[in-house]
Design goal:
single chain, alpha+beta, 3-stranded antiparallel β-sheet, 5-stranded antiparallel β-sheet, Peptide Deformylase, globular, 181 residues, 31% strand, binds nickel (II) ion
Length: 181
């Protein structure tokens, strides 16, 4: 168990499509310690979420969740979740714009369009099924993390580049280390 180095944009591995985890391997020491490393690394970085490719492992595992979010004090907490082999299905074509940052793109933020409401399915750390319909910031975090599993970083989703900037300039009062994904 350890805090791992987070890869930054420019690393080819961040652009790869990650491999699914065979269901029978979820209980293995390899996968269980990878999950622990993801959680520890996310917490050490004050992150809202983290995907396995961000620590150099091209497998379909993401972790996310937080009690409260300083950027979005009105948003509901997102439950601590370990999601393996996720599938996202948009509820409809409605999208909304919101701010995003990424631990692999440190110091920057931009407004990114995401589906407002989604269903997501996958397996948890015990191999049990997760099947949720969520909206708002929860839906945004899941879409951001699962994008890491198909080689997409949020700057590749930005439509209005006039919103792309440095966190310390865009949000002068904010702790720049807080709550990126
Ligand atoms: Ni990210």
């Amino acid at each position: 168990m350890s805090v791992r180095k987070i890869l930054k944009m420019g690393e080819p591995l961040l652009l790869q499509v990650a491999q699914p985890v065979p269901a029978e391997k979820i209980g293995s020491l390899e996968i269980q310690s990878l999950i622990q490393d993801l959680i520890e690394t996310m917490h050490a970085a004050n992150g809202a979420g983290l995907a396995a490719p961000q620590i150099g492992i091209s497998q379909q595992i993401v972790v996310f969740g937080f009690e409260k979010n300083q950027r979005y004090p009105d948003e509901d907490p997102v439950p601590q979740t370990i999601l393996i082999n996720p599938i996202i299905t948009p509820f409809d074509s409605t999208k909304e714009i919101g701010w995003e940052g990424c631990l692999s793109v440190p110091g920057l933020r931009a407004q990114v369009p995401r589906y407002s409401k989604i269903r997501y399915q996958g397996l948890n750390q015990d191999g049990q099924i997760i099947d949720r319909v969520v909206e708002g910031f929860h839906a945004r975090v899941v879409q951001h993390e699962c994008d890491h599993l198909i080689g997409k970083l949020y700057p590749m989703r930005v439509e209005d580049f006039s919103t792309f900037g440095f966190t310390e300039v865009l949000f002068p009062g904010l702790d720049p280390s807080d709550q990126d994904e």
